[in-house]
Design goal:
Low-confidence stretches of chain B: 38-61, 91-95
Number of helices of chain B: 3
CATH architecture of the largest domain in chain B: Beta Barrel
Distance between the termini of chain B: 44 Å
Largest sheet of chain A: none
Mean pLDDT of chain B: 80
Largest interface: A-B, 60 and 50 residues
Low-confidence stretches of chain A: 1-13, 90-110
Structural class of chain B: mainly beta
Keywords (chain A): DNA-binding, Sigma factor, Transcription, Transcription regulation
Number of domains of chain A: 2
Radius of gyration of chain A: 18 Å
Shape of chain A: globular
Order of helices and strands of chain A: HHHHHHHHHH
Strand order of the largest sheet of chain B: 1-24-23-22-2-4-5
Structural class of chain A: mainly alpha
Family (chain A): Belongs to the sigma-70 factor family. ECF subfamily.
Largest sheet of chain B: 7 strands, antiparallel
Mean pLDDT of chain A: 74
Strand content of chain B: 35-45%
Distance between the termini of chain A: 57 Å
Order of helices and strands of chain B: HHHEEEEEEEEEEEEEEEEEEEEEEEE
Strand content of chain A: under 5%
Protein name (chain A): RNA polymerase sigma factor
Number of domains of chain B: 2
Number of helices of chain A: 10
Pfam family, one (chain A): Sigma70_r4_2
Organism (chain A): Paractinoplanes lichenicola
Oligomer: heterodimer
Number of strands of chain B: 24
Protein backbone atom coordinates (compact mmCIF):
# COMPACT_ATOMS: atom_id res chain seq x y z
CA UNK A 1 0.00 0.00 0.00
CA UNK A 2 2.67 2.48 1.00
CA UNK A 3 4.76 1.60 -2.02
CA UNK A 4 1.81 2.26 -4.31
CA UNK A 5 1.25 5.64 -2.81
CA UNK A 6 4.90 6.52 -3.05
CA UNK A 7 4.88 5.47 -6.69
CA UNK A 8 1.83 7.60 -7.32
CA UNK A 9 3.51 10.68 -5.91
CA UNK A 10 5.17 11.79 -9.11
CA UNK A 11 6.51 14.99 -7.56
CA UNK A 12 8.53 12.96 -5.14
CA UNK A 13 10.77 10.19 -6.36
CA UNK A 14 11.43 7.28 -4.00
CA UNK A 15 14.58 8.89 -2.60
CA UNK A 16 12.58 11.92 -1.54
CA UNK A 17 9.96 9.65 -0.01
CA UNK A 18 12.65 7.97 2.07
CA UNK A 19 13.76 11.43 3.06
CA UNK A 20 10.23 12.13 4.24
CA UNK A 21 10.09 8.87 6.15
CA UNK A 22 13.08 9.82 8.20
CA UNK A 23 11.64 13.30 8.77
CA UNK A 24 8.37 11.72 9.87
CA UNK A 25 10.11 9.29 12.21
CA UNK A 26 12.09 12.04 13.90
CA UNK A 27 9.41 14.72 14.21
CA UNK A 28 5.90 13.22 14.20
CA UNK A 29 5.72 12.67 17.96
CA UNK A 30 7.03 16.16 18.75
CA UNK A 31 4.59 17.79 16.33
CA UNK A 32 1.67 15.78 17.73
CA UNK A 33 2.53 16.68 21.34
CA UNK A 34 3.05 20.31 20.43
CA UNK A 35 -0.35 20.39 18.74
CA UNK A 36 -1.96 18.64 21.70
CA UNK A 37 -0.63 21.28 24.07
CA UNK A 38 -1.50 24.14 21.76
CA UNK A 39 -4.99 22.88 20.93
CA UNK A 40 -5.80 21.27 24.28
CA UNK A 41 -7.34 18.29 22.53
CA UNK A 42 -5.38 15.11 21.85
CA UNK A 43 -7.86 13.65 19.36
CA UNK A 44 -7.92 16.78 17.29
CA UNK A 45 -4.13 17.03 17.62
CA UNK A 46 -3.67 13.56 16.22
CA UNK A 47 -5.90 14.36 13.26
CA UNK A 48 -4.18 17.68 12.70
CA UNK A 49 -0.72 16.14 12.90
CA UNK A 50 -1.63 13.43 10.39
CA UNK A 51 -3.26 15.92 8.06
CA UNK A 52 -0.30 18.28 8.22
CA UNK A 53 2.17 15.44 7.69
CA UNK A 54 0.17 14.26 4.68
CA UNK A 55 0.28 17.75 3.22
CA UNK A 56 4.00 17.91 3.91
CA UNK A 57 4.47 14.64 2.05
CA UNK A 58 2.54 15.89 -0.97
CA UNK A 59 4.64 19.08 -1.07
CA UNK A 60 7.78 17.51 0.30
CA UNK A 61 10.11 19.04 -2.30
CA UNK A 62 9.12 22.52 -1.17
CA UNK A 63 8.66 21.76 2.52
CA UNK A 64 12.00 20.08 3.09
CA UNK A 65 13.91 23.22 2.10
CA UNK A 66 12.05 25.66 4.35
CA UNK A 67 14.00 26.83 7.40
CA UNK A 68 12.01 24.73 9.82
CA UNK A 69 10.01 21.86 8.26
CA UNK A 70 8.72 20.71 11.65
CA UNK A 71 7.52 24.23 12.35
CA UNK A 72 5.83 24.28 8.95
CA UNK A 73 3.98 21.07 9.79
CA UNK A 74 3.01 22.45 13.20
CA UNK A 75 1.57 25.62 11.66
CA UNK A 76 -0.34 23.72 8.96
CA UNK A 77 -1.76 21.37 11.60
CA UNK A 78 -2.68 24.28 13.84
CA UNK A 79 -4.43 26.11 11.01
CA UNK A 80 -6.25 22.98 9.89
CA UNK A 81 -7.51 22.28 13.42
CA UNK A 82 -8.50 25.88 13.97
CA UNK A 83 -10.49 25.92 10.73
CA UNK A 84 -12.20 22.66 11.58
CA UNK A 85 -13.11 23.89 15.03
CA UNK A 86 -14.29 27.25 13.72
CA UNK A 87 -16.49 25.52 11.17
CA UNK A 88 -18.10 23.43 13.87
CA UNK A 89 -18.69 26.42 16.11
CA UNK A 90 -20.07 28.52 13.29
CA UNK A 91 -22.58 25.92 12.28
CA UNK A 92 -23.61 24.92 15.75
CA UNK A 93 -22.33 25.51 19.19
CA UNK A 94 -21.38 22.02 20.35
CA UNK A 95 -21.73 21.55 24.07
CA UNK A 96 -18.14 22.07 25.06
CA UNK A 97 -17.98 19.52 27.83
CA UNK A 98 -19.71 16.86 25.79
CA UNK A 99 -17.12 16.67 23.04
CA UNK A 100 -14.15 18.22 24.76
CA UNK A 101 -13.53 20.47 21.80
CA UNK A 102 -12.14 23.53 23.55
CA UNK A 103 -10.46 23.04 26.90
CA UNK A 104 -7.81 20.57 27.82
CA UNK A 105 -8.38 16.86 28.04
CA UNK A 106 -10.09 16.23 31.35
CA UNK A 107 -7.54 15.61 34.02
CA UNK A 108 -4.60 16.61 31.90
CA UNK A 109 -3.41 19.68 33.80
CA UNK A 110 -3.09 19.13 37.49
CA UNK A 111 -0.45 21.66 38.47
CA UNK A 112 -1.16 25.37 38.87
CA UNK A 113 1.19 26.26 36.06
CA UNK A 114 -0.31 23.66 33.73
CA UNK A 115 -3.82 24.80 34.55
CA UNK A 116 -2.80 28.38 33.84
CA UNK A 117 -1.29 27.22 30.55
CA UNK A 118 -4.52 25.44 29.64
CA UNK A 119 -6.47 28.65 30.21
CA UNK A 120 -4.38 30.61 27.72
CA UNK A 121 -5.87 31.23 24.28
CA UNK A 122 -4.68 28.89 21.53
CA UNK A 123 -2.62 31.53 19.65
CA UNK A 124 -0.72 32.27 22.86
CA UNK A 125 -0.16 28.59 23.57
CA UNK A 126 1.07 28.16 20.00
CA UNK A 127 3.75 30.79 20.57
CA UNK A 128 4.79 29.20 23.84
CA UNK A 129 4.95 25.77 22.26
CA UNK A 130 7.15 27.06 19.43
CA UNK A 131 9.54 28.60 21.89
CA UNK A 132 9.71 25.74 24.35
CA UNK A 133 9.10 22.52 22.42
CA UNK A 134 10.67 23.54 19.11
CA UNK A 135 13.32 25.76 20.71
CA UNK A 136 12.67 28.58 18.26
CA UNK A 137 13.80 32.15 18.69
CA UNK A 138 11.34 35.04 18.60
CA UNK A 139 12.16 35.68 14.97
CA UNK A 140 11.85 32.00 14.06
CA UNK A 141 8.56 31.68 15.93
CA UNK A 142 7.24 34.70 14.08
CA UNK A 143 8.30 33.19 10.77
CA UNK A 144 6.76 29.78 11.52
CA UNK A 145 3.45 31.18 12.74
CA UNK A 146 3.50 33.97 10.15
CA UNK A 147 2.93 36.70 12.69
CA UNK A 148 4.92 39.79 13.67
CA UNK A 149 7.80 39.49 16.10
CA UNK A 150 6.09 42.05 18.33
CA UNK A 151 3.07 39.77 18.52
CA UNK A 152 5.27 36.87 19.56
CA UNK A 153 6.81 38.99 22.31
CA UNK A 154 3.46 40.22 23.61
CA UNK A 155 1.91 36.75 23.65
CA UNK A 156 4.91 35.35 25.43
CA UNK A 157 4.77 38.10 27.97
CA UNK A 158 1.07 37.44 28.51
CA UNK A 159 1.77 33.74 29.05
CA UNK A 160 4.50 34.44 31.59
CA UNK A 161 2.30 36.89 33.38
CA UNK A 162 -0.59 34.42 33.56
CA UNK A 163 1.67 31.78 35.01
CA UNK A 164 3.19 34.18 37.48
CA UNK A 165 -0.29 35.22 38.64
CA UNK A 166 -1.40 31.62 39.03
CA UNK A 167 1.60 30.77 41.16
CA UNK A 168 1.20 33.89 43.29
CA UNK A 169 -2.43 33.00 43.94
CA UNK A 170 -1.34 29.66 45.35
CA UNK A 171 -2.12 29.66 49.07
CA UNK B 1 10.79 31.32 31.50
CA UNK B 2 11.39 28.43 33.92
CA UNK B 3 7.81 27.96 35.10
CA UNK B 4 6.47 28.32 31.61
CA UNK B 5 9.06 25.98 30.24
CA UNK B 6 8.30 23.41 32.92
CA UNK B 7 4.52 23.69 32.45
CA UNK B 8 4.76 23.22 28.68
CA UNK B 9 7.15 20.31 28.91
CA UNK B 10 5.07 18.64 31.61
CA UNK B 11 1.87 19.10 29.62
CA UNK B 12 3.56 17.68 26.50
CA UNK B 13 4.91 14.72 28.42
CA UNK B 14 1.44 13.95 29.76
CA UNK B 15 -0.11 13.76 26.30
CA UNK B 16 -0.98 10.10 25.61
CA UNK B 17 1.46 8.52 23.18
CA UNK B 18 0.48 8.19 19.57
CA UNK B 19 2.53 5.51 17.86
CA UNK B 20 3.77 6.78 14.49
CA UNK B 21 1.61 5.61 11.64
CA UNK B 22 3.29 6.48 8.41
CA UNK B 23 0.88 4.28 6.47
CA UNK B 24 -2.09 6.34 7.62
CA UNK B 25 -0.32 9.55 6.72
CA UNK B 26 0.54 8.30 3.23
CA UNK B 27 -3.02 7.11 2.79
CA UNK B 28 -4.22 10.57 3.72
CA UNK B 29 -1.67 12.07 1.36
CA UNK B 30 -3.35 10.25 -1.49
CA UNK B 31 -6.55 12.11 -0.67
CA UNK B 32 -4.73 15.41 -0.43
CA UNK B 33 -3.24 14.81 -3.86
CA UNK B 34 -6.65 14.00 -5.25
CA UNK B 35 -8.06 17.19 -3.80
CA UNK B 36 -5.28 19.19 -5.38
CA UNK B 37 -5.81 17.53 -8.75
CA UNK B 38 -9.52 18.04 -8.50
CA UNK B 39 -9.07 21.66 -7.50
CA UNK B 40 -6.83 22.36 -10.46
CA UNK B 41 -9.26 20.76 -12.86
CA UNK B 42 -12.14 22.71 -11.41
CA UNK B 43 -10.31 25.96 -11.81
CA UNK B 44 -9.72 25.13 -15.42
CA UNK B 45 -13.11 24.24 -16.70
CA UNK B 46 -15.65 22.16 -14.99
CA UNK B 47 -18.39 22.95 -12.58
CA UNK B 48 -18.26 21.46 -9.12
CA UNK B 49 -21.15 19.17 -9.86
CA UNK B 50 -19.60 17.80 -13.01
CA UNK B 51 -16.37 17.39 -11.15
CA UNK B 52 -17.91 15.20 -8.51
CA UNK B 53 -18.95 12.76 -11.18
CA UNK B 54 -15.44 12.54 -12.60
CA UNK B 55 -13.71 11.57 -9.40
CA UNK B 56 -13.80 7.85 -8.86
CA UNK B 57 -14.95 6.32 -5.60
CA UNK B 58 -14.58 8.81 -2.84
CA UNK B 59 -14.65 12.54 -3.28
CA UNK B 60 -13.67 14.02 0.05
CA UNK B 61 -16.02 16.78 1.09
CA UNK B 62 -15.29 19.53 3.51
CA UNK B 63 -17.95 18.16 5.80
CA UNK B 64 -16.48 14.66 5.85
CA UNK B 65 -13.13 14.12 7.42
CA UNK B 66 -11.13 11.02 8.07
CA UNK B 67 -10.77 10.62 11.79
CA UNK B 68 -12.67 11.06 14.98
CA UNK B 69 -11.97 14.59 16.19
CA UNK B 70 -15.27 14.87 18.03
CA UNK B 71 -14.61 11.65 19.88
CA UNK B 72 -17.34 10.24 22.03
CA UNK B 73 -18.47 6.95 23.45
CA UNK B 74 -17.91 3.58 21.82
CA UNK B 75 -19.70 2.88 18.56
CA UNK B 76 -21.50 -0.46 18.24
CA UNK B 77 -20.33 -2.34 15.14
CA UNK B 78 -22.51 -4.87 13.39
CA UNK B 79 -21.09 -7.97 11.82
CA UNK B 80 -21.80 -8.15 8.12
CA UNK B 81 -24.83 -10.31 7.50
CA UNK B 82 -23.00 -12.63 5.15
CA UNK B 83 -20.52 -13.60 7.83
CA UNK B 84 -21.46 -16.28 10.31
CA UNK B 85 -21.64 -14.95 13.84
CA UNK B 86 -19.72 -16.49 16.69
CA UNK B 87 -22.32 -16.09 19.40
CA UNK B 88 -24.89 -18.74 20.19
CA UNK B 89 -28.50 -17.74 20.06
CA UNK B 90 -31.65 -19.14 21.55
CA UNK B 91 -32.90 -21.36 20.20
CA UNK B 92 -29.44 -22.60 19.41
CA UNK B 93 -28.20 -22.75 15.89
CA UNK B 94 -27.59 -20.28 13.16
CA UNK B 95 -28.87 -16.79 13.43
CA UNK B 96 -28.50 -13.74 11.30
CA UNK B 97 -25.76 -11.39 12.48
CA UNK B 98 -27.34 -8.24 13.77
CA UNK B 99 -30.51 -10.01 14.75
CA UNK B 100 -31.64 -9.61 18.34
CA UNK B 101 -29.91 -6.25 18.42
CA UNK B 102 -26.55 -7.95 18.53
CA UNK B 103 -23.35 -6.11 17.73
CA UNK B 104 -20.15 -7.98 17.07
CA UNK B 105 -17.75 -5.36 18.36
CA UNK B 106 -17.30 -1.75 19.34
CA UNK B 107 -15.07 1.02 18.13
CA UNK B 108 -13.27 2.25 21.21
CA UNK B 109 -10.30 4.45 21.94
CA UNK B 110 -7.45 2.29 23.13
CA UNK B 111 -4.16 3.96 24.07
CA UNK B 112 -5.44 7.11 22.44
CA UNK B 113 -6.20 5.44 19.12
CA UNK B 114 -9.43 4.10 17.64
CA UNK B 115 -9.52 0.32 17.82
CA UNK B 116 -11.94 -2.53 17.20
CA UNK B 117 -12.80 -4.26 20.46
CA UNK B 118 -14.79 -7.45 20.05
CA UNK B 119 -17.80 -7.74 22.34
CA UNK B 120 -17.08 -10.27 25.06
CA UNK B 121 -18.70 -13.63 24.39
CA UNK B 122 -20.26 -14.55 26.68
CA UNK B 123 -20.97 -11.25 28.36
CA UNK B 124 -19.99 -11.12 32.05
CA UNK B 125 -22.24 -13.24 34.26
CA UNK B 126 -23.89 -15.00 31.33
CA UNK B 127 -23.43 -18.30 29.59
CA UNK B 128 -23.07 -18.33 25.84
CA UNK B 129 -26.83 -18.70 25.39
CA UNK B 130 -28.07 -15.28 24.43
CA UNK B 131 -31.61 -14.18 23.89
CA UNK B 132 -31.07 -10.50 23.06
CA UNK B 133 -27.94 -8.51 22.38
CA UNK B 134 -25.33 -7.57 23.20
CA UNK B 135 -27.06 -4.42 22.00
CA UNK B 136 -25.33 -1.04 21.97
CA UNK B 137 -26.57 1.63 24.36
CA UNK B 138 -26.14 5.39 24.06
CA UNK B 139 -22.97 6.24 25.92
CA UNK B 140 -21.08 3.16 24.78
CA UNK B 141 -22.47 0.44 27.04
CA UNK B 142 -23.95 -2.91 26.04
CA UNK B 143 -27.13 -4.67 27.14
CA UNK B 144 -27.56 -8.43 26.93
CA UNK B 145 -30.29 -10.81 28.00
CA UNK B 146 -29.28 -14.42 28.24
CA UNK B 147 -28.96 -17.49 30.36
CA UNK B 148 -26.94 -16.99 33.53
CA UNK B 149 -23.49 -18.51 33.84
CA UNK B 150 -24.91 -21.24 36.10
CA UNK B 151 -27.58 -21.86 33.45
CA UNK B 152 -30.41 -21.54 36.00
CA UNK B 153 -32.18 -18.38 34.93
CA UNK B 154 -32.39 -15.53 32.46
CA UNK B 155 -30.53 -12.39 33.47
CA UNK B 156 -30.23 -8.87 32.11
CA UNK B 157 -26.64 -7.67 32.07
CA UNK B 158 -25.72 -4.08 31.29
CA UNK B 159 -22.09 -3.06 30.94
CA UNK B 160 -20.74 0.48 30.80
CA UNK B 161 -18.50 1.98 28.13
CA UNK B 162 -15.43 0.48 29.77
CA UNK B 163 -16.93 -3.02 29.73
CA UNK B 164 -17.61 -3.07 33.50
CA UNK B 165 -20.87 -4.60 34.70
CA UNK B 166 -23.23 -1.77 35.61
CA UNK B 167 -26.24 -3.98 36.27
CA UNK B 168 -26.87 -7.72 36.50
CA UNK B 169 -30.45 -8.59 37.43
CA UNK B 170 -32.82 -11.50 36.89
CA UNK B 171 -35.22 -11.13 34.00
CA UNK B 172 -38.80 -11.14 35.32
CA UNK B 173 -40.91 -13.95 33.95
CA UNK B 174 -42.33 -13.07 30.56
CA UNK B 175 -44.51 -16.15 30.11
CA UNK B 176 -43.60 -16.29 26.46
CA UNK B 177 -41.70 -18.75 24.37
CA UNK B 178 -38.06 -18.01 23.88
CA UNK B 179 -37.59 -16.48 20.50
CA UNK B 180 -34.51 -15.17 18.83
CA UNK B 181 -34.81 -13.02 15.79
CA UNK B 182 -36.68 -10.18 17.42
CA UNK B 183 -34.71 -7.05 18.15
CA UNK B 184 -33.81 -5.27 21.36
CA UNK B 185 -32.60 -1.74 21.88
CA UNK B 186 -32.09 0.58 24.80
CA UNK B 187 -31.62 4.15 25.88
CA UNK B 188 -30.07 5.46 29.07
CA UNK B 189 -32.83 4.12 31.29
CA UNK B 190 -34.73 1.35 29.54
CA UNK B 191 -34.48 -1.60 27.20
CA UNK B 192 -37.19 -2.24 24.61
CA UNK B 193 -38.22 -5.24 22.58
CA UNK B 194 -41.28 -6.80 21.07
CA UNK B 195 -42.90 -10.02 22.19
CA UNK B 196 -45.76 -11.90 20.65
CA UNK B 197 -48.44 -12.81 23.19
CA UNK B 198 -50.69 -15.78 22.55
CA UNK B 199 -54.38 -15.04 23.06
CA UNK B 200 -57.54 -17.02 23.09
CA UNK B 201 -58.85 -18.33 19.82
CA UNK B 202 -55.44 -19.19 18.45
CA UNK B 203 -54.67 -15.50 18.03
CA UNK B 204 -51.66 -13.53 18.99
CA UNK B 205 -50.78 -9.89 19.51
CA UNK B 206 -47.46 -8.09 19.62
CA UNK B 207 -46.63 -6.14 22.76
CA UNK B 208 -43.77 -3.76 23.35
CA UNK B 209 -41.83 -4.73 26.44
CA UNK B 210 -40.03 -2.05 28.40
CA UNK B 211 -37.43 -3.10 30.93
CA UNK B 212 -36.40 -0.52 33.51
CA UNK B 213 -32.64 -0.97 33.92
CA UNK B 214 -32.41 0.60 37.37
CA UNK B 215 -35.40 -1.17 38.86
CA UNK B 216 -35.16 -4.44 36.99
CA UNK B 217 -38.89 -4.37 36.21
CA UNK B 218 -40.89 -5.02 33.07
CA UNK B 219 -43.90 -3.25 31.66
CA UNK B 220 -46.00 -4.05 28.62
CA UNK B 221 -47.48 -1.68 26.09
CA UNK B 222 -49.99 -2.57 23.47
CA UNK B 223 -50.11 0.14 20.83
CA UNK B 224 -53.54 1.05 19.52
CA UNK B 225 -52.36 0.54 15.97
CA UNK B 226 -50.90 -2.86 16.66
CA UNK B 227 -48.19 -4.09 14.37
CA UNK B 228 -48.71 -7.22 12.38
CA UNK B 229 -46.26 -10.08 12.20
CA UNK B 230 -44.69 -8.87 8.96
CA UNK B 231 -44.17 -5.42 10.40
CA UNK B 232 -42.32 -6.49 13.50
CA UNK B 233 -38.79 -5.13 13.67
CA UNK B 234 -36.87 -8.22 12.70
CA UNK B 235 -33.96 -6.20 11.37
CA UNK B 236 -33.26 -3.54 13.93
CA UNK B 237 -34.30 -1.07 16.58
CA UNK B 238 -32.54 1.90 18.07
CA UNK B 239 -33.83 4.11 20.86
CA UNK B 240 -33.28 7.68 21.95
CA UNK B 241 -34.69 9.07 25.16
CA UNK B 242 -38.16 9.53 23.71
CA UNK B 243 -38.33 7.72 20.37
CA UNK B 244 -37.51 4.36 18.87
CA UNK B 245 -36.63 3.87 15.24
CA UNK B 246 -37.21 0.33 14.02
CA UNK B 247 -37.07 -1.34 10.67
CA UNK B 248 -39.21 -4.33 9.90
CA UNK B 249 -38.77 -7.14 7.44
CA UNK B 250 -41.62 -5.78 5.42
CA UNK B 251 -41.85 -7.58 2.10
CA UNK B 252 -38.37 -8.89 2.69
CA UNK B 253 -36.96 -5.39 2.33
CA UNK B 254 -35.23 -3.39 4.97
CA UNK B 255 -35.44 0.04 3.45
CA UNK B 256 -38.50 1.08 5.38
CA UNK B 257 -38.46 2.42 8.91
CA UNK B 258 -40.92 3.59 11.49
CA UNK B 259 -40.77 5.72 14.58
CA UNK B 260 -42.40 4.84 17.87
CA UNK B 261 -43.09 6.86 20.96
CA UNK B 262 -40.82 5.17 23.50
CA UNK B 263 -43.22 5.89 26.35
CA UNK B 264 -46.36 4.44 24.76
CA UNK B 265 -45.15 2.27 21.90
CA UNK B 266 -47.49 4.14 19.55
CA UNK B 267 -46.30 4.49 16.00
CA UNK B 268 -45.48 8.11 15.24
CA UNK B 269 -44.48 7.76 11.59
CA UNK B 270 -43.70 5.18 9.00
CA UNK B 271 -41.64 5.77 5.87
CA UNK B 272 -40.32 3.92 2.93
CA UNK B 273 -37.45 6.23 2.02
CA UNK B 274 -36.19 6.59 -1.49
CA UNK B 275 -33.02 4.57 -1.05
CA UNK B 276 -32.02 2.79 -4.22
CA UNK B 277 -30.32 -0.56 -4.36
CA UNK B 278 -30.09 -1.31 -0.70
CA UNK B 279 -29.95 -4.85 0.49
CA UNK B 280 -29.56 -4.00 4.13
CA UNK B 281 -29.74 -0.84 6.16
CA UNK B 282 -29.07 0.11 9.76
CA UNK B 283 -30.74 3.22 11.07
CA UNK B 284 -29.72 5.57 13.86
CA UNK B 285 -31.97 8.31 15.17
CA UNK B 286 -30.36 11.61 16.16
CA UNK B 287 -30.67 12.52 19.85
CA UNK B 288 -33.08 15.34 19.00
CA UNK B 289 -35.19 12.91 16.91
CA UNK B 290 -35.01 15.22 13.89
CA UNK B 291 -32.89 13.05 11.61
CA UNK B 292 -32.40 9.40 10.89
CA UNK B 293 -29.04 8.27 9.57
CA UNK B 294 -29.25 5.20 7.35
CA UNK B 295 -26.09 3.17 6.88
CA UNK B 296 -26.79 1.59 3.53
CA UNK B 297 -24.84 -1.39 2.25
CA UNK B 298 -25.14 -2.14 -1.43
CA UNK B 299 -23.97 -5.51 -2.69
CA UNK B 300 -23.21 -5.87 -6.34
CA UNK B 301 -21.16 -8.54 -8.09
CA UNK B 302 -19.60 -9.71 -4.85
CA UNK B 303 -18.54 -6.19 -3.96
CA UNK B 304 -19.95 -4.08 -1.16
CA UNK B 305 -20.17 -0.32 -0.96
CA UNK B 306 -21.60 1.81 1.82
CA UNK B 307 -23.06 5.25 2.12
CA UNK B 308 -24.78 7.14 4.89
CA UNK B 309 -28.08 8.68 3.92
CA UNK B 310 -29.48 11.24 6.32
CA UNK B 311 -33.26 11.43 6.29
CA UNK B 312 -35.68 13.92 7.74
CA UNK B 313 -37.46 12.03 10.52
CA UNK B 314 -40.67 14.02 9.97
CA UNK B 315 -40.93 13.56 6.22
CA UNK B 316 -38.70 10.61 5.41
CA UNK B 317 -37.07 12.70 2.68
CA UNK B 318 -33.34 12.56 2.04
CA UNK B 319 -31.46 15.49 3.53
CA UNK B 320 -27.97 14.57 2.39
CA UNK B 321 -25.85 11.59 1.45
CA UNK B 322 -22.29 10.85 2.51
CA UNK B 323 -20.28 8.37 0.47
CA UNK B 324 -17.65 6.25 2.13
CA UNK B 325 -14.50 4.97 0.43
CA UNK B 326 -15.20 1.73 -1.35
CA UNK B 327 -15.29 -1.11 -1.81
CA UNK B 328 -15.97 -2.27 1.71
CA UNK B 329 -13.81 -5.23 2.60
CA UNK B 330 -14.27 -5.04 6.35
CA UNK B 331 -16.66 -7.26 8.26
CA UNK B 332 -17.66 -4.86 11.07
CA UNK B 333 -19.25 -1.47 10.65
CA UNK B 334 -21.48 0.99 12.42
CA UNK B 335 -22.32 4.58 13.06
CA UNK B 336 -23.40 6.83 15.90
CA UNK B 337 -24.52 10.39 16.25
CA UNK B 338 -22.17 12.90 17.87
CA UNK B 339 -24.54 15.57 19.07
CA UNK B 340 -27.44 16.52 16.83
CA UNK B 341 -25.66 17.18 13.57
CA UNK B 342 -22.56 15.09 13.25
CA UNK B 343 -22.22 11.38 12.59
CA UNK B 344 -19.32 9.11 13.45
CA UNK B 345 -18.93 6.20 11.03
CA UNK B 346 -16.50 3.35 11.58
CA UNK B 347 -15.58 0.08 9.98
CA UNK B 348 -12.82 -2.45 10.44
CA UNK B 349 -11.92 -6.01 11.23
CA UNK B 350 -11.08 -7.85 14.40
CA UNK B 351 -7.29 -7.83 14.69
CA UNK B 352 -6.99 -6.15 11.31
CA UNK B 353 -5.50 -2.88 10.17
CA UNK B 354 -6.46 0.36 11.86
CA UNK B 355 -10.21 0.93 11.52
CA UNK B 356 -11.52 3.59 9.18
CA UNK B 357 -13.31 6.33 11.09
CA UNK B 358 -15.10 9.17 9.33
CA UNK B 359 -16.77 12.20 10.85
CA UNK B 360 -19.68 13.52 8.82
CA UNK B 361 -21.07 16.95 9.50
CA UNK B 362 -24.57 17.90 8.41
Amino acid sequence: METDIVAETRDDPPAAAEDFESFYASTSDRVYRALAVALGDVHLAREAADEAMARAFVRWRQVKVVDNPAGWVFRVGLNWATSWRRKLRRERAFPETEHGLPGFEPGLPDGDAEAALARLPIPTRAVVVCRVLFGLSTAETAAVLQIAEGTVRSRLSRAKSALRDSLEEKP
Amino acid sequence: MNNLDHAVRTAAARVPSAPPNLGAVLHRARRVKRCRTVGAAAAAVVTVAALAATVPQYLPRRNVIVGDPLGGPSIGLWLDREILPKTQGLPSGKHVPGSSGEVGAQLRTVDGKPAIVVAADPQPGLSGLTRFGPAPLPGGGLATIGVSADQKSFRVVVTDAAGRVASNKPLPDLKTDVSRGMQMTGNGTSLFWWEVRAEKGNKSRPVLITYNIAQGTLSERTPSAALTGGELPYFGMQATESRIVEWPAEFGRTCSFELLDAATGERVAKFRPDIAGCSDVYYALSPDNRHVAALVTTRSGGERTQRVVVLNARTGKTVTTFDTPGPVTESLYGLAWAGHDAIRYARGDEGGAAPLVLTMKL
